[in-house]
């Protein structure tokens, strides 16, 4: 957690022993609010005609399916405010069904443009990851630049942010709805930039009018209760759950601006799944950042901490008297705490470990595009080796501790910390965390004759899929 008050960092806590200070952390859907800022900059520079520019006019050479008058009317404002009318079914309300379908398609842009319409643009709030993807592709098309290059030049460099990671698909398009990584303090700079109406050290980075418009409500999530089935019929159960969550469980759902969540008290937030928050409180001149790893309702704990502890701690607009003991406590809590793990004797490998060691398994279609899996088990080692390809661009190899101690392996996808054990004669379980990714997974690999079955417990759900030895 990072707290900025009156332009000064007043608290900076790192509580995860696996996550060192100043490391990058995944933002998940906080990325959407950064894409919004880039759109504002692109409009100000004349690359995009404005928020009333129509989506299909940006791609005049594309033949689009399910084309009707409603789809022709979709504007950039509709994309920004999650009111396109497209039947994307790509949020948590739909178990990300449409998002997985997009990622399995050969042409993500064509898939998105071909989606059927479910409503008139501007009529229905429907939180959509694909909407933000379309905004990023519009940035590419209109600026002629890679969106990260554009961001580095026009947003990050002026803020002194020099270390950003943004994951891409195999054809060079950003996974714009998520997968950006920043340091916590650098994310706080973005909140401070908006608090200062887009100005930084005397320079206007994001247009002031854009900042104001971005945090103005154009959509109202509490009215969006019509979760639709694939055939566009209402899903009553899911709609009821959405109604309850929006009104009683989800913070910052009073309104929605341009990829920002709004509260009636004037605070606004960029939010990412599993507890990523950038909260701006203009009245208190305060910015709050939290990066965490949580599931279910626990992912909203940072917002509760902000409301119940941070805001009440604001006592005065004038400097408080010096308090050396409180300052010492803050510094003591800054962390992170030391990771302490003790090795235990390594159990003898079961016979199946020798038979499957070095075997490559070709995987059936699965949500994460995992193509191949291969293990190496060596009775002389206290760790195993796991190799796999996934998510179009990942080619991962990391070590898995067999003695109860996590092994840390740097890969092209980041640093993995993994420990594993044989839970039966034919099943090997791996607990793994991608450092800074905000969550941890458990994989259970069951080896059968010439085949493997994978049970994956992840942030987006539990999945079972299989593969065969090549």
Describe the structure.
The protein has 13 helices and 22 strands. The chain is of the alpha+beta class. It folds into two domains: 2-313, DD-peptidase/beta-lactamase superfamily (Beta-lactamase, 3-Layer(aba) Sandwich), CATH 3.40.710.10; 351-469, Lipocalin. The chain has a ten-stranded antiparallel sheet with strand order 16-15-14-13-22-21-20-19-18-17. A seven-stranded antiparallel sheet has the order 2-1-12-11-10-9-8, sandwiched between helices. A hairpin with a 6-residue loop joins strand 14 and strand 15. Helix 1 (30-44) packs parallel to helix 6 (129-143). The protein is globular and about 65 Å long.
Key descriptive features of the protein:
single chain, 470 residues, alpha+beta, Beta-lactamase, Lipocalin, 2 domains, ten-stranded antiparallel β-sheet, seven-stranded antiparallel β-sheet, 22 strands
